[in-house]
Specification:
The chain has 422 residues and is an alpha/beta fold. Helices cover 26% and strands 22% of the residues. It has helices at residues 11-18, 101-104, 114-117, 129-141, 173-184, 201-210, 221-234, 262-266, 281-286, 296-302, 308-326, 398-404, and strands spanning 6-10, 25-33, 38-42, 52-59, 72-76, 82-86, 91-93, 96-98, 121-125, 145-149, 189-193, 213-216, 238-244, 249-255, 345-349, 375-377, 391-395, 410-414. β5 (72-76) and β6 form a beta hairpin. α4 (129-141) runs parallel beside α5 (173-184), α4 (129-141) packs across α11 and α6 packs across α7. The termini are far apart.
Length: 422
């Protein structure tokens, strides 16, 4: 039995057409989920699409009968109400209307009013298993502007943890995540940068300066250092997250201008860069995590990522920190979290193995940290930090000290940044 067709039309597009006195009739395009009889009717073609397509005519003219039985016909009145003529059904049908943005996220009201986030711009660098999920969650919350950066394409090994599907294989991650963002928030503005940010520091600096918040979801320290440098230079809040070997745990760092930066974190003993999770062989060989002499068999054994469920605690924490940062100072239902999420560094363990062997059981905490709980770590800004400190000491060596005295064994270099000169 052939299902009764269902039609969806974007309410904002329909309203613009209905209230435009200069246009009475225009051509659009319909996309069908074949076998389900579900049609999405658009005034403009989609950038990417699957499925059966058919020409759609939108008109405000008074028609008694369809003038072209091979086309889908949409009659629109002055109030923006529509009827759809479907040739195969030979009937006029009422479409479903995708609501305006103020109604689309009505269930968020009381926690996050739409006007708090629709004017915010978030830059997400890295659209892998972390960045893809975070982008979609922020879109669902109503963030209005995104700058997304990743040079990679979707590969088979991504699918176990990525939000993409098999039909996205080979596509740029920026295209896939743009569609995912707009699928949740069709009113969002998305700028795509399918580049390696390490190759264009000037662009990175410019885009960081535009952002209200930077999400660093990359898998290597070189890009994190570059992002940190841009965040410090432009006084832009930034959130960094990573998984540790096979996602047995992970950590999240929140940079707030004036506080400790990511470079401070690496020098304080809490952070262990050797615990990086290896997500794919090519990038791990490029950044030295897998040595050049390692055989293909051994390298394959090293690339064993954790479950998607194992990284979700980290992505969820990054989303919460992002929402608190973006809505800071505004009245909202999550305002109380500003008093809770005060730490710059957070640690999480999924399993008591390897790096977390000595952690206590979740059921028997005692006096030790346990798995499946967040731990906030207080940190101070390092005044000698190479990226955010006012002065960095350079050790000139013992020979220099012998010749010029102990006090001359190091020199101070002013590393403060003059934003007016950027």
């Amino acid at each position: 039995m052939t299902p009764k067709p269902v039609f969806y039309i974007d309410g904002e597009e329909l309203k613009r057409f209905a209230t435009n006195p200069r246009v009475q009739t225009t051509e659009g395009i319909g996309y069908e989920w074949e076998g389900e009889g579900v049609w999405h009717l658009h005034f403009h073609p989609l950038t990417h699409s699957f499925g059966h397509q058919q020409t759609v005519t939108f008109t405000k003219e008074q028609l008694d009968e369809p003038y072209d039985p091979s086309r889908i016909l949409v009659k629109v009145n002055a109030e923006g109400e529509a009827q759809v003529w479907h040739p195969q059904s030979q009937a006029w049908l009422a479409p479903e209307i995708i609501p305006a943005k103020e109604d689309l996220y009505s269930r968020n009201k009381g926690l996050l009013e739409l006007n708090i986030l629709e004017g915010k711009r978030v830059m997400i660098v890295g659209l892998g298993s972390f960045g893809s999920q975070i982008a979609i969650e922020l879109a669902k919350a109503g963030v209005g502007h995104f700058a997304i950066m990743d040079f990679d394409r979707v590969e088979l090994h991504n699918l176990a943890r990525h939000t993409s599907t098999t039909r996205d294989l080979g596509r740029l991650k920026t295209d896939v995540i743009e569609e995912a963002i707009l699928g949740k928030n069709p009113y969002a503005k998305v700028e795509k940068f399918p580049i390696n940010i390490n190759d264009d520091p000037q662009l990175l600096l410019q885009e960081t300066a535009k952002a209200d918040l930077v999400i660093c979801a990359t898998d290597n320290n070189r890009s994190r250092f570059n992002i940190n440098s841009a965040a410090v230079a432009t006084a832009t809040p930034a959130i960094y997250g990573r998984a540790i070997t096979r996602a047995e745990g992970g950590d999240v760092f929140h940079y707030r201008p004036g506080g400790p930066c990511y470079c401070c974190l690496l020098g304080n003993g809490w952070y262990d860069a050797t615990m990086e999770e290896i997500t794919d062989e090519a990038s791990a060989r490029a950044n030295g995590q897998i040595a050049a002499y390692t055989s293909a068999e051994d390298a394959d054994a090293m690339v064993q990522v954790g479950l998607s469920a194992d990284i979700e605690p980290m992505t969820n924490m990054m989303v919460k920190l992002a929402l608190v940062e973006l809505s800071r100072g505004a009245a909202s239902g999550i305002q109380s979290l500003e008093e809770e999420l005060i730490y710059p560094y957070y640690m999480w363990a999924n399993r008591r193995e390897r790096n977390y062997t000595n952690w206590a059981s979740f059921a028997n905490p005692g006096h030790m940290p346990t798995i499946m709980r967040w731990y906030g770590v207080e940190m101070e800004r390092d005044g000698g930090c190479a990226q955010c400190g006012n002065a960095t000491s350079l050790d000139l060596g013992q020979d220099f000290a012998k010749e010029f005295g102990p006090e001359a064994s190091s020199i101070k270099i002013d590393t403060s940044i003059d934003l007016d000169k950027l």
